C-alpha cells in the first residue's frame, strides 16, 4: 500500500485489515528520528517524512481479537 498521507495509511489499516498501527506493531519513524504509533507528529514536524517499521514478527493483532490480559 502506498500513500503520501499517514492518516490515509491508518484508515487503510482499519478499513482493510481491521487493525491499528499499535495492534499491528507498526511504528512510524520520521527522518528527524521521532518514532510513534500515531500521525500527530506529522502535524508538528517540518520534515514529516516517515518510514514504517514493523516491531515483532508475530501475526498482526486485529480489533476483533480478544483482549489478552
Give a description of the structure.
By secondary structure, the chain is α+β, with helices and mostly antiparallel strands. It contains three helices and three strands. A hairpin with a 4-residue loop joins strand 1 and strand 2. It has a three-stranded antiparallel beta sheet. It is globular, with a radius of gyration of 13 Å. The protein has one domain (6-54).
Q: Which terms summarize this structure?
A:
three-stranded antiparallel β-sheet, 29% helix, 69 residues, 3 strands, 3 helices, alpha+beta
Architecture blueprint of SSEs:
Layout (H helix, E strand, L loop, with lengths): L5 H12 L3 H4 L1 E5 L4 E2 L4 H4 L5 E5 L15
Antiparallel strand pairs: 1-2, 1-3
Can you describe this structure in just a few lines?
Helix content is 29%, strand content 17%. It is of the alpha+beta class.
Number of helices: 3
- Helical amount among residues, as a percent range? 25-40%
Following the backbone from N to C, one meets helices and strands in this order, namely HHEEHE
| Order of strands in the sheet with most strands | 2-1-3
- Integer tally of domains: 1
Q: Catalogue the unreliable spans.
A: none
Largest sheet, strands/sense/barrel: 3 strands, antiparallel
Q: How many angstroms separate the termini?
A: 32 Å
Radius of gyration: 13 Å
Average of pLDDT: 83
Query: What would you call the shape?
Result: globular
* Beta-strand residue percentage: 15-25%
Strand count: 3
